[in-house]
Structure formats: structure tokens, C-alpha cells
């Protein structure tokens, strides 16, 4: 069993990495990019029977800083 967790900064939280990517894209000639938000993807291999509620608990305790980040769980 597998799970994929998508972690992104919440709206309104400054994203300096995203801004650096946007600036670099402009420097490379890619015009028209208004904003870039950068996040992370975490793939987990889980023991059979591990439920989404357990993955949510993992996110709340370690995988995401829920003060400034949101997350989405995808059970695969």
C-alpha cells in the first residue's frame, strides 16, 4: 500500500523559493509567468491496513508544518 502527500505553503504565506524560480524563468526568456508556488511531494510505502487517518496523523505531527503549510493525501 502506498500514499502520496502533497505539501504546499498556505495562501498568503511568502514563498521565496517560488519567487526565485519565477525570477530565474524570466531570466531564461520564459515570459508570462505571474507567480510560482513551490511545494514537496512525499511518497510513503505503508504496511497493509494502514489507513488515511494514520497518514493524516503523520502529516500533523511531522510531514507538514500546519501553521504555514497545507497538505493533501492521495492513497494509491
From TrEMBL:
**Pfam hit, one:** PurS
Gene Ontology CC = cytoplasm
Assembly information from the UniProt record: Part of the FGAM synthase complex composed of 1 PurL, 1 PurQ and 2 PurS subunits.
Which Gene3D superfamilies does this one have? Answer: Phosphoribosylformylglycinamidine synthase subunit PurS
Give the EC number: 6.3.5.3
Predominantly, its location class is cytoplasm
Q: List the molecular function annotations (GO) for this entry.
A: ATP binding; phosphoribosylformylglycinamidine synthase activity
User: What is one process in the GO biological process aspect for this record?
Assistant: 'de novo' IMP biosynthetic process
- What pathway is this protein a component of? Purine metabolism; IMP biosynthesis via de novo pathway; 5-amino-1-(5-phospho-D-ribosyl)imidazole from N(2)-formyl-N(1)-(5-phospho-D-ribosyl)glycinamide: step 1/2
Q: Any idea what this protein is called? A: Phosphoribosylformylglycinamidine synthase subunit PurS
The scientific name of the source species is Alloyangia pacifica
Amino acid at each position: 500500500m502506498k500514499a502520496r502527500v502533497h505539501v504546499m505553503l498556505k495562501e498568503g504565506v511568502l514563498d521565496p523559493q517560488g519567487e526565485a524560480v519565477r525570477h530565474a524563468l524570466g531570466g531564461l526568456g520564459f515570459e508570462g509567468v505571474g507567480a510560482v508556488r513551490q511545494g514537496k511531494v512525499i511518497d510513503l510505502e505503508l504496511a497493509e491496513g494502514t489507513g488515511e487517518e494514520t497518514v493524516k496523523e503523520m502529516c500533523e505531527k511531522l510531514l507538514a508544518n500546519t501553521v504555514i503549510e497545507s497538505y493533501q493525501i492521495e492513497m494509491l
